[in-house]
């Protein structure tokens, strides 16, 4: 009898070989089914309630994937590619997951029949290279120097990104707004310089774009209402100082032996505060913003001198104000001079809905802007914000990479045709595998049809015929339940979305196919640490 060799801890779960791979593929399928129906203009939304009971309604693939608490190790790769697509391009998150799932689904029969995963991976990589080259050849380049054309193109790309979102009725309104907001940024196009503030109430069309900075009125003390609420040609002091009385006695220990001396301490405190305030006043600033609280004495003092102040301004808003209006955030009042003051053409406090907002407009180096969103429900506003984020990312990408392809399943059909034709020129197993990849690419137009309730087979047949005749931009036309030349219809997407989506999907496919064994360690100590038996105190047994 050979002694049994135990390598792994008891309770370790190991599964390997073909069944393991197939079960991983099946796990990925079920994730794809979760986001499958959100694709396209007729996509449905998902309502996800987390463990704290917060409900999120979303159509954005990456948001849904983040909120689903997925524990299956292989399926997590799909969540990762959705996140990476969201970070890199911003849109196309559902498509990535869908493509990866469909690649696996089409390749599953080959795995079951015993084709070695390495051969499959090689074919997937080959197909990916062919696709990327083809996209680069097909992509339509735009001339940047023609400003009007370039702007029209950006608006079309933004509108295509907003097509599949909740706010697609107002896509013309929002795509203009998004393009305006991105074009105000500087060449690096930093995302955090576009602030999005949400105010419930009002209609979506009341949303507005402030070229400059806007933030909610902060907590205010007595005397605040006496301050002027609007200035022209204003100087702004940005501080990181607490202008309150209590600060001094907390910082030092003072021993006094009679009342007169205590009075001196109190007077000194007031004096210190008044000195600070006088210095700020002398600097010529009319608007004072501070990250720390500005107390009631200070508020009153500023009001008497026709100055506006806001304390406890959130840091990101202070930073954006600094970027827009110039100046520096000071931590002392000693050397406030014109050099460190910001300036803007017009400052006002305006009522928007139930909130009051401080607006800084006409900033000298305004490379920042704020979008103020209005709408009924809070979840709706959050979804609008997510949709705008996608559109903003798309416009940024299009400005950087200036080539576009037609959306609506057109480019996928063209790639599918190209792969199918290419596969017939290869002898060997790769022919079948690349053929399967070609079939998998058709999932995007098919899903667009399914989500809109069209007859997918019928429309796909028409599309295949058109593409075979050389009409390369034909895709699904959701409005007419037919097919149309989507390039003419201005359903445009930056080619970088498609390249990124295909690359990420192929990488995920290869990764899942190359796993042939999963080893799960048991939870340490069976979850809970064993409790010591009840004793008579001191842990002694009865």
Automatic annotation (TrEMBL):
Record has Lipid metabolism as a keyword: no
Family to which this protein belongs: Belongs to the TCP-1 chaperonin family.
Taxonomic superkingdom: Eukaryota
Principal place of residence: cytoplasm
Entry GO terms, CC: chaperonin-containing T-complex
Organism, scientific name: Anopheles dirus
Alphabetized InterPro entries for the sequence: Chap_CCT_eta, Chaperone_TCP-1, Chaperonin_TCP-1_CS, Cpn60/GroEL/TCP-1, GroEL-like_apical_dom_sf, GROEL-like_equatorial_sf, TCP-1-like_intermed_sf, TCP-1_chaperonin
The reaction(s) this protein catalyses: ATP + H2O = ADP + phosphate + H(+)
Biological role stated in the UniProt entry: Molecular chaperone; assists the folding of proteins upon ATP hydrolysis. Known to play a role, in vitro, in the folding of actin and tubulin.
Subunit and interaction comment: Heterooligomeric complex that forms two stacked rings.
One Pfam family here: Cpn60_TCP1
NCBIfam families in the record: chap_CCT_eta, thermosome_alpha, thermosome_beta
Chain spans, region Disordered: 521-542
Keyword tags: ATP-binding, Chaperone, Cytoplasm, Nucleotide-binding
Compartments it resides in: Cytoplasm
A GO MF term: unfolded protein binding
Protein name: T-complex protein 1 subunit eta
């Amino acid at each position: 009898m050979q002694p049994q060799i135990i390598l792994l801890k008891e309770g370790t779960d190991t599964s390997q070989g073909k069944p393991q791979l197939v079960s991983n593929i099946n796990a990925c399928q079920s994730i794809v089914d979760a986001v499958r129906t959100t694709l396209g203009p007729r996509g449905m939304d998902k309502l996800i309630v987390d463990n704290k009971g917060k409900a999120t309604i979303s159509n954005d693939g990456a948001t849904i994937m983040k909120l689903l608490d997925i524990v299956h190790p292989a399926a997590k790769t799909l969540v990762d590619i959705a996140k990476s697509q969201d970070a890199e391009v911003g849109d196309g998150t559902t498509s990535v997951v869908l493509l990866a799932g469909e690649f696996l689904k089409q390749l599953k029969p080959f795995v079951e029949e015993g084709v070695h995963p390495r051969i499959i991976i090689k074919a997937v990589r080959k197909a990916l290279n062919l696709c990327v080259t083809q996209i680069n050849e097909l992509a339509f380049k735009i001339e940047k120097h023609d400003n009007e054309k370039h702007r029209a193109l950006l608006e079309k790309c933004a509108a295509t990104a907003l097509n599949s979102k909740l706010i697609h009725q107002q896509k013309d309104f929002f795509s203009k707004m998004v393009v305006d907001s991105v074009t105000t940024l500087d060449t690096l196009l930093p995302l955090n310089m576009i602030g999005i503030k949400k105010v419930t109430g009002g209609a979506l069309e009341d949303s507005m774009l402030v070229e400059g900075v806007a933030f909610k009125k902060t907590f205010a003390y007595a005397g605040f209402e006496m301050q002027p609420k609007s200035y022209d040609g204003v100087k702004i002091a940005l501080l990181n100082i607490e202008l309150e009385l209590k600060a001094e006695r907390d910082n030092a220990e003072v021993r006094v032996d009679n009342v007169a001396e205590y009075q001196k301490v109190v007077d000194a405190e007031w004096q210190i505060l008044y000195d600070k305030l006088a210095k700020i006043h002398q600097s010529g600033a009319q608007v004072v913003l501070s990250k720390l609280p500005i107390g009631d004495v200070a508020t009153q003092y500023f009001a008497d001198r026709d100055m506006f102040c806001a304390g406890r301004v959130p840091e990101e808003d202070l930073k954006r104000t600094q970027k827009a209006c110039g100046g520096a955030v000071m931590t002392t009042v000693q050397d406030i001079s014109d050099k460190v003051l910001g300036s803007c053409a017009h400052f006002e406090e305006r009522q928007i809905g139930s909130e009051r907002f401080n607006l800084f407009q006409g900033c000298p180096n305004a490379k920042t802007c704020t979008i103020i969103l209005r709408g009924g429900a809070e979840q709706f506003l959050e979804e609008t914000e997510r949709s705008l984020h996608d559109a903003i990312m798309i416009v940024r990408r299009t400005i950087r990479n200036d080539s576009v392809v037609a959306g609506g399943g057109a480019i996928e059909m063209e790639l599918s045709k190209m792969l199918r034709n290419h596969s017939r020129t290869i002898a060997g197993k790769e022919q079948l595998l690349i053929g399967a990849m070609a079939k998998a690419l058709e999932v995007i137009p098919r899903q667009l049809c399914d989500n809109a309730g069209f007859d997918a087979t019928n429309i796909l047949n028409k599309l295949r015929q058109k593409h075979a005749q050389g009409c390369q931009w034909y895709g699904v036309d959701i409005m007419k339940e037919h097919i149309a030349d989507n390039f003419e219809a201005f359903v445009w997407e930056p080619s970088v979305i498609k390249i990124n989506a295909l690359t990420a999907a192929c990488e995920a496919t290869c990764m899942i196919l190359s796993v042939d064994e999963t080893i799960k360690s048991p939870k340490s100590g069976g979850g809970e640490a064993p409790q010591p038996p009840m004793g008579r105190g001191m842990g002694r047994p009865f």
